[in-house]
Amino acid sequence: MAERVAIAGVEIVEVRISHLAYAPEIAQAMLRRQQASAVVAARSRIVDGAVGMVELALARLSERGIVDLDEERKAAMVSNLMVVLCGDQPASPVVNTGTLYS
Q1: 3-class DSSP state for residue 87?
Q2: Amino acid 47: pLDDT
Q3: How far apart are CA 96 and CA 58, in angstroms?
């Protein structure tokens, strides 16, 4: 900027930006990107917490001898807990009137 006005004999001592604006479509794209990053970071934290809770639940059930689960039932329990803990909607309870072993 100083080079451009030097021809006119003007000396620029200091320059400050007083206003900076993006075109609406650029601002909207930047906002969407920022929101997407925040959602991904939040989901990552939710999944990390859910994995820890599932590990803790399996460990406590095993160490206290509350229930002995085979690998298939552990997988089903892990799947169900992850869906409930990571889902957007509140869990809807289901009453099982049958047996797990049929």
Answers
A1: coil
A2: 94
A3: 20
The confidence band for 102, taking pLDDT boundaries of 50, 70 and 90, is low
pTM of full prediction above 0.90: no
Distance from C-alpha of 6 to C-alpha of 10, rounded to nearest angstrom: 5
User: Are 72 and 92 a contacting pair, CB within 8 Å?
Assistant: no
Q: Could you report the per-residue pLDDT of 46-93, keeping only the tens digit for each?
A: 999 999 999 999 999 989 998 888 899 899 899 989 998 998 888 787
Residue 7: alpha-carbon gap to chain centroid:
55
74 CB-contact burial (10 Å; exposed 0-12 / middle 13-18 / buried 19+): middle
Which residue in 49, 36, 44 sits closest to 81, CA to CA?
49
16: phi then psi, degrees, rounded to nearest 5: -130, 140
